[in-house]
Description:
The protein is of the alpha+beta class and 291 residues long. Helix content is 37%, strand content 23%. The protein has a single domain (33-247, 261-284), classed as Alpha-Beta Complex (Cathepsin B, Chain A). It has helices at residues 2-22, 51-72, 85-94, 105-114, 142-152, 163-167, 257-285; strands at residues 33-35, 97-98, 102-103, 118-119, 128-129, 133-137, 155-162, 174-175, 188-201, 206-216, 219-225, 229-236. A hairpin with a 3-residue loop joins strand 2 (97-98) and strand 3. It starts with a helix and ends in a 6-residue tail after the last helix. InterPro entries: Papain-like_cys_pep_sf (IPR038765).
Amino acid sequence: xxxxxxxxxxxxxxxxxxxxxxxxxxxxxxxxxxxxxxxxxxxxxxxxxxxxxxxxxxxxxxxxxxxxxxxxxxxxxxxxxxxxxxxxxxxxxxxxxxxxxxxxxxxxxxxxxxxxxxxxxxxxxxxxxxxxxxxxxxxxxxxxxxxxxxxxxxxxxxxxxxxxxxxxxxxxxxxxxxxxxxxxxxxxxxxxxxxxxxxxxxxxxxxxxxxxxxxxxxxxxxxxxxxxxxxxxxxxxxxxxxxxxxxxxxxxxxxxxxxxxxxxxxxxxxxxxxxxxxxxxxxxxxxxxxx
Length: 291
């Protein structure tokens, strides 16, 4: 009798193992609202048709901050991506970017990987934030995107931006998709942004994506309808930056006017980003009270 009980116990364990390996596992349901504003850095301005370069740089910085702070704690990643002037020159020489036509984001991500990553500013240390490649996501569903952002952080999104309508999409105004038959070269263009959050509107049954744009000093931050976004790109981070790279190996410089100005600008930038994040968190998690 004991033998049969032991056999049944082993059989049940084996069947449970097989079901776990080959059966359908229930995946966790993402929350209806989520935001990675805490890992987003300073917006990089796009003034010359370089929205793809700006968005790639911003997203890679955010992905590295997320990977680093998951290991070393929140607020520990103090690297900031440098304005990608050198990347623009390199892409222009390769013929994959110009001011009039912009660039294919896949070629930009390949160029960044080949160059060793995104350059950072001199403080705390000028290093490169590398990527090992990227995932391109077509025909992804809204629920899948929610899960992707929750688990893997900010991604790059591509949409058609109708000039007048898109510029008005600030604050709580949601930018929605322009039908293909109403898209003309003189009325809009394809545009790249960084998607770092979302919220589901149960009344309209719509998914709204929170993005950081590259048109102004504060982005701005916009709400984009999920239906308006056509492609998503996830840069792949090989591993978090090593902790010792936060310390410079060079000798400490003497105090000078330029050092004082640099320190003042860094302090001002920190205050600006803190204000942007606090404003975003208040808007995201504290809905307006109705009178």
